Amino acid sequence: MSFPKKFLWGGAVAANQCEGAYLTDGKGLSVPDMLIGGSLNTPRTFLPQIDTTAFYPSHQAVDFYHHYKEDIALFAEMGFKCFRTSINWGRIFPNGDDERPNEAGLQFYDALFDECKKYNIEPLVTLCHYEIPWHIVTEYHGFYNRKTIDLYLKYVKTCFQRYKDKVKYWIPFNEINMAMMNAGMGDLYCLGLLEDEDIRSKERIPVTKLKHDPQKCFTALHNEFVASALAVKAGHEINPDFKFGTMIAHGTMYPLTPDPKDMLFYQKKEHQKYDFCGDVQVRGKYPCWAKSMFADYGVQADFIDDLDDKRILKEGVVDFYSFSYYSSSCITTNPNVEKTHGNMSFRAKNPYLKASEWGWQIDPDGLYYTLMRLTDRYPETPLMIVENGLGAMDQLTADGKVHDKYRIAYLKPHIEAMKRAVEDGVPLMGYTSWGPIDLVSAGTGEFRKRYGYIYVNRDDDGRGDFSRIKKDSFFWYKKCIESNGEDLEF
């Protein structure tokens, strides 16, 4: 067996990391617009009002808003079958609770999806990719407030009705489990949840230092589950051909040692970090160990027994399971081991693996393991890898080229691992690598952490003319897609 003939090869971006044009055509402020850039060792900082003296990476990003036709043409040249992007909620409802949608925002995404269709590229649309309107954060405390469910539903139904003949594949929330993995940072990015003290702050706050209340976090996450399920149900009613996916941030974990305590700790963390959200959205119910997990966090989880919410979760299960995968790490009960960076997390270093410049441990076998494990857990559910890639400091040569063989060397064994999983029966429907064009890093706010097949002339000081340059990996990925994953040589 090889990849299916209709396998969805492509790439993935997020509106806040590529579009720029942050107040153009009536767009309102959203969470990323309030985040100042950082670096590997200096976390991004947050300020609850715009500081005109600071540089905000997302405000211009790589200006996809004004370059989308050029960029989609480049994606088509590579042979994309699918393009994952997001709709910025604040472009459609600038404050999140507006009476009517912003027509200019709706028209932009009309034009974007039309451009994709022009090249027979299937849009895969994330409805909330860390892009909660800022007004919802400050006035409603994000998804901690049940009213935000209604605001979200008004927004997504507007999108479903408008784009029902242009978009088939939808993801209600990006990396919904990230709310459980990074305390205050996850609260803000995923749930739009901030404590009053941080909202009123006059000083910049590192996102890693934002206040965190587990009770509020899990209440907000439950409300997000309900919002997602209601969105799935509404979407299926508007267009029965719509397909919805959960989206989980997946970083494979291994027990660091054969100590049974490490094994049990690994199993517990695997359940909590990944299976918890997956089970709710794929199976439509909380797992049997959920109450024990809530007790560990000191959370009163009365919401888990709400009969109306139980029914909603069951009626709004997703159609496929999508996930991001970049790296793996180890789990141990020993606090005194060497740590390594992951996707906005720190875990024990695996001595058998090499790492990227940002400390993410490179592990193609972990992707194979993850695909097999997910198929075991959700045997009837198609899978899709919607983020995977290597962030690196690319260098332009004197003749204006980028020779990024290290990126190809990362991607090749990951695609081979995918193929091996398909040969072993995994129902894998697509692969959209992150990101096909350079963009702003969500974790650090950097431009120099580049992922793309397409170089964008933009730096961490806000300099550059936004010109696009094809890297060596551009031509390699084009060959990969043309051969349906068979020709991976470079």
From TrEMBL:
Molecular function GO terms recorded: beta-glucosidase activity
Hydrolase listed as a keyword: yes
Gene3D superfamilies hit by this protein: Glycosidases
SUPFAM superfamilies xrefs: (Trans)glycosidases (SSF51445)
Domain of life of the source: Bacteria
InterPro entries named among the record's database cross-references: GH (IPR017853), GH_1_N_CS (IPR033132), Glyco_hydro_1 (IPR001360)
Keyword Hydrolase attributed: yes
One Gene Ontology term from the biological process aspect of the record: carbohydrate catabolic process
PROSITE patterns for this protein: GLYCOSYL_HYDROL_F1_2
Pfam families: Glyco_hydro_1 (PF00232)
UniProt keyword annotations, A-Z: Glycosidase, Hydrolase
This protein's GO CC annotations: cytosol
Family statement drawn from the similarity comment of this UniProt entry: Belongs to the glycosyl hydrolase 1 family.
Protein name: 6-phospho-beta-glucosidase
Source organism: Gemmiger formicilis
Lineage: Bacteria, Bacillati, Bacillota, Clostridia, Eubacteriales
